[in-house]
Amino acid sequence: MQNKCLKFFVILVLSFVFFCSACLAREINDGSKKDPGQIASANQLPDCCFEEVKSPRLSTEGYKKKVNNFVVIFDPSASMSEIFNGKTKFELAKCLLERMNNRIPDFKMLGALRTFGCPVYTSLLYGFAEYNPKDFDIALSTLKSADGVSPLDFALRETSKDFDKLTGKSAIIIFTDGKDMDEDVVTEARKLVRKFRDRVCIYGILIGSDEKGKELLERIVTASNCGFLIMADEVNSPQGMDDFVRSVFLCADADKDGVCDSVDECPDTPKGAKVDARGCWSVGVVLFDFDKYNIKSKYYPILNEVWEIMKQNPGLKIKIEGHTDIIGTERYNKKLSIRRANSGKAYLVRKGVKPQRIVTIGYGYSRPRAPSDTEEGRAMNRRIEFKPVR
To answer: Which of 63, 67, 107, 327 lies 20 to 30 angstroms, CA to CA, from 296?
Structure first.
């Protein structure tokens, strides 16, 4: 038994040595294909990308945060030591990531920095942790040189495990040249997206101009419906980087209601109003007793909330819609629903709202919000609702 264990241990050690030798040989061979001096060191590249604009972090005015978590997957493999536009791809990627880190808006979210290399491994240099630009930059500074293989598929697999512990929407940002990778990377990206669906977007920044790498990275990012591929040159300027950061981390929110314009079903939300997931004004419903139209005192806070919103928005007009349950004739319930709407209007007018800012309408029992075959359902249908008039 001991001999068998010893043999197994020897085989394991030899395999490890062989694999690392292969990694080293690959790096040497890559270097031998270049002219002497084509692999530059960091101190040869003081100006690796655009001059940073000394300004506050990217403004969020007119935008809202659209991600709760993000992870940068940084490729430090041997091919990243190749020269691109007079710089090593590694130093260009690192510099661009530094610039991105300095422009990410200042809001609360979780962040991470993941890398990979030879022998096949992947590790988190930072996070997942509450995003702190200074701590992220310290982690990034530990990346010193490019060498080894490109197990991006392994990094994506581990990222999927990381996401199991997170909530909300996540962004994956990949800095890579796309070289020396196979179909497994695309497979892992698709698995990750199938698992998390619209909760994850994949973005790629292609460092270099390798056509096969570009094609592969395009297939990776299109695994998600919301990601995209961009070339390093396109983000190698203050404006280009700002545009990229906005696309990944922010979405336009013109009415500042916290819902992205792209999914906002109710644009121009009144200032200060609460909204639902659709971006529509969400104010509580005032309910009535059977065959009554007087407003009970427990619903005064709802009407006061409407009054406060109308004070904050002097140009706002609203419509009060009255409803009834199904008991009684259509004609009678139509009149009852109008009386209920007018009761809501009278309350607001007494608070100082001008009558011409309020329109009332009664729908009777034609627009139930709950089934009418139970008392609970009928009680929910005896109501008034408030909507802004555009």
So the answer is: 327
Instruction: With beta carbons less than 8 A apart as the criterion, state whether 192 and 222 touch.
Output: no
The per-residue DSSP string of 4-19 comes to HHHHHHHHHHHHHHHH
Question: Torsions phi, psi of 84, nearest 5?
Answer: -140, 115
| Tens of pLDDT, residues 154-172 | 999 999 999 999 999 999 9
d(CA 188, CA 191): 5
Under DSSP, is residue 130 helix (H, G, I), strand (E, B) or coil? strand
Tell me if residue 21 falls in helix, strand or coil. helix
What DSSP state is assigned to residue 269?
P
d(C-alpha 125, C-alpha 114), whole Å: 6
**Cα 7 from Cα 3, distance rounded (Å):** 6
pLDDT tens digit string along 11-69?
444 444 434 444 444 443 444 333 333 333 333 333 567 776 566 688 888 898 999 99
* 279-318 b/e (C-beta count within 10 Å ≥ 16 → b): bbbebeebbbeeeebebeeebeebbebbbebbeebeebeb
State the Cα–Cα distance between residues 326 and 330, nearest whole angstrom: 8
Q: Taking a C-beta distance cutoff of 8 angstroms, is the pair 250, 61 a contact? A: no
Query: Rounded CA gap, 220 and 228, in Å?
Result: 9
Residue whose token pair is 């790498």: 213
**Domains of the chain as residue ranges with CATH:** 18-252 (3.40.50.410), 283-389 (3.30.1330.60)
pTM value is 0.74
Give me the residue label for tokens 């079903």: 265
R_g of the chain computed on alpha carbons = 30
Helix, strand or coil, per DSSP, at residue 383? strand
Cα 97 to Cα 205: distance, rounded to the nearest angstrom: 10
